[in-house]
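Trying the structure run again after the queue cleared.
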Amino acid sequence: MKIQKLEFGDRARSWYLEEIEFSPHLNLLVGVSGAGKTKIISSILYLKEIVNGKSFNGMYWDVTFLTKDNISYRWQGEFETVKGLRIRRNDSDEEYKLKIISEHISKDKQIIIERDSEKIIFKGSQIPKLSPFQSIVELFNQEEDISPVKDEFNKIITNSDKSFENLLKIPTHILEKYQNCSLNDLKESNISIFMKFCLAYQFLPETFNKIKDTFVELFHTVEDIKIGHQFINYGLSEPPIDSLLGGSIVYIKERGVERWIKPNTISSGMLKTLMYISEFYLSPEGSVILIDEFENSLGVNCLDSVTDLILENPRLQFIITSHHPYIINNIGNKYWKIVTRQGNTVTVKEPKELGLAQSTHQGFIDLINFLEELSEEGEAE
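Done. Tokens:
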């Protein structure tokens, strides 16, 4: 999927995002703290939850995207707004679900399905009323013209996955399912990146070695990576078993060091870099990767290397937020999306709209000056 345009609102919390146009490869969201960068990321994640049956008080959306087959979809919708309602994000009781009051999907500018509070029209014919609490994307997820919407939104990947630091137990049925899988089968599977990484180690050594070799190129002190059981005896120099049964974790072998290193003693920057590299190799074609505060846990050497990997990976779409001068200055300003906020309305502009220079260095200086002016204006208010 390539997200092209997004408009989003949350009437329950009085937050609104004016239409933003995304680039097909890399989008770096920059702006002062509190401008709304993280909320843009959250808005996209809400859409992923909505296609999987969730409902949210007062939210509305209008998103246009391309599928992996280059088919254009536009999906619009709106939930009712119930004032004073206070529910947790994971509440599932029927009394807390919100009704969809309007929704429609078009494919290559032809309306496929539309609904309001009274009826659903599918390909020109009215059909019996269905649950008002779920999106038509979920209700019609087996329909040929609608299923791609859910499929594509489920390719959205966020950097909140901490599993590279934890023990993972892979069910036997997953091992059996993927023991003869192709790389494409693994990419298209709806399982976590770390589980894909472990399965690649077990069943796709060529792919695993590509990930490992890329990682070793970035960290010259590293000699090898493997998956094994958790150490019972800290005196062991080898992870005891190379099997995924019973629970597995990542081990790193450094040059000149006898014992393998466990995740709790590996730097967070190394683990996060390994996660990003795995995402680049194991995500389905056309995935959207969301990274909030890209610089978190990454050292300067990791920032440089991972940024280069992103720039070299056009088959994926990246939507990233950052405050870090190194990242902003080293990612060309053609990828910048400058986030500003007036009251409760967020607007995203291109550098050229603000008269920022095209050269990276001068453009960065102009951006810093512009953001400082915004900050001063905010303080004055």
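Residues 163-282 form one domain. Worth checking whether this holds up in the mutant runs.
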